[in-house]
Design goal:
Blueprint lengths: L5 H7 L7 E8 L2 E8 L2 H11 L4 E4 L4 E4 L10 H10 L2
C-alpha cells in the first residue's frame, strides 16, 4: 500500500469488497507474491506502480528482499469466470 497513490489507498479502505487480492506462496526454491486486480482502475493504481519496485520490505519481520522477476497475465472476463467456477 505504501507504493500506491495515497488517495487511491484511502478509497480502497471504503470498499466493502476490494478490487484486488494478494497472497504469497512458496514455489520450489522461491517465494512468489501474487497480486490480482479485477478492474482497470485497480490495475492502473496497484499493478503499474509496482512495476518499478526493486525491493520489498516486510516490516513486521524486518526483512528486505530484491524483486528478481515479474510477469503479468491479463485474462478475459470469461476465462476468469471459468477459472473461478470450474477449477478446484
Amino acid at each position: 500500500m505504501e507504493q500506491i497513490d495515497t488517495d487511491y489507498a484511502q478509497e480502497l479502505h471504503q470498499y466493502s469488497l476490494n478490487p484486488y487480492s494478494q497472497y504469497v506462496v512458496k514455489e520450489k526454491d522461491k517465494t512468489v507474491w501474487y497480486i490480482c486486480t479485477v478492474n482497470e482502475e485497480a490495475y492502473e493504481n496497484i499493478i503499474l506502480p509496482l512495476e518499478e519496485l526493486k525491493q520489498i520490505t516486510i516490516r513486521r519481520k524486518e526483512i528486505t528482499t530484491n524483486v528478481v522477476g515479474r510477469s503479468i497475465e491479463i485474462l478475459e472476463e470469461s476465462e476468469l469466470m471459468k477459472q473461478f467456477y470450474e477449477e478446484k
